[in-house]
Amino acid sequence: MPPRRCTGWPPWLNCGGSWVSSRRAGAQRPGEQLVHVTFVCSGNICRSPMAEKMLAHQIAGRGLAEQVRVTSAGTGGWHAGDGADHRTNAVLLAHGYPTTHRAAQLDDDHLAADMVVAMGRNHARMLADMGVPPERLRMMRSFDPRSGAFTLDVEDPYYGGPEDFEAVFTVIEAALPGLHDWIDEQLGRHR
């Protein structure tokens, strides 16, 4: 059997009739990050940008910004191009995190991430239906070692008040150490 010939560049390569992530096909461009993590919620203005900013800031603090790419997206395009919700920004600022953000709608780059982190079960179902395999798809709360005691959804704070945004921050904060562990495994590092 001849070797598979892969054509095309990012984010998908056509390898002998099947579409695979370019990273999984062994292709890597100079300077490409080794690990891509993306967060997905509905509009990309509340939950997913909060998680993105928190993880990216922590990754930079660990000196891994050149090795780990962190992005986020919404399943809908209602807010594409907008900044994060002002309540998201208020919580991030209160905890010392950056707030620069432009909402994006889910695209092939996000779907090709090494880890696609869904904020809700509805997002996870949609992502699975779009072809994200189970080994690259997780719920945010599944990274929290206490997640068995809670529903895995990170509740949407959009129609709530400041306390709901603070609650989302707390949920994300509890899950991030588990995500750092996953990233370290991918990078072949141990804390």
* CATH fold assignment: Rossmann fold
Q: Supply the CATH class.
A: Alpha Beta
Overall tally of domains: 1
Span between N and C termini?
42 Å
User: How many strand elements?
Assistant: 7
How much of the sequence lies in strands comes to: 15-25%
- SSE pattern: EEEEHEHHEHEH
Give me the secondary-structure category: alpha/beta
Considering the protein shown, what is the CATH homologous superfamily? Response regulator
Q: What CATH architecture would you give?
A: 3-Layer(aba) Sandwich
Largest sheet entry: 4 strands, parallel
> Could you report the average pLDDT, rounded to the nearest whole number?
86
Radius of gyration from the alpha-carbon trace, in angstroms: 17 Å
Total count of helical runs of at least 4 residues: 5
State the helicity in percent bands.
25-40%
Rough outline: globular
Strand order within the widest beta sheet? 5-4-6-7
Low-confidence segments, ≥5 residues, pLDDT <50?
1-29
Describe this protein's structure.
InterPro entries: LMW_PTPase (IPR050438), Ptyr_pPase (IPR023485), Ptyr_pPase_sf (IPR036196), Tyr_phospatase_low_mol_wt (IPR017867). Residues 35-182 form the Phosphotyrosine protein phosphatase I domain. It holds the Pfam family LMWPc. It is an enzyme of class 3 (hydrolase). GO terms for molecular function: protein tyrosine phosphatase activity. The chain is α/β, with parallel strands linked by helices. It has a single domain (38-187), classed as Rossmann fold (3-Layer(aba) Sandwich), CATH 3.40.50.2300. The chain is 33% helix and 16% strand. It has five helices and seven strands; from the N terminus they run ββββαβααβαβα. It has helices at 47-61, 86-94, 108-111, 121-129, 162-187; strands at 6-7, 12-15, 18-21, 35-41, 68-74, 115-118, 137-139. A four-stranded parallel β-sheet has the order 5-4-6-7, sandwiched between helices. A hairpin with a 2-residue loop joins β2 and β3 (18-21). The longest helix is centred in the C-terminal third of the chain and has 26 residues, at 162-187. Mean pLDDT is 86; it is low at 1-29.
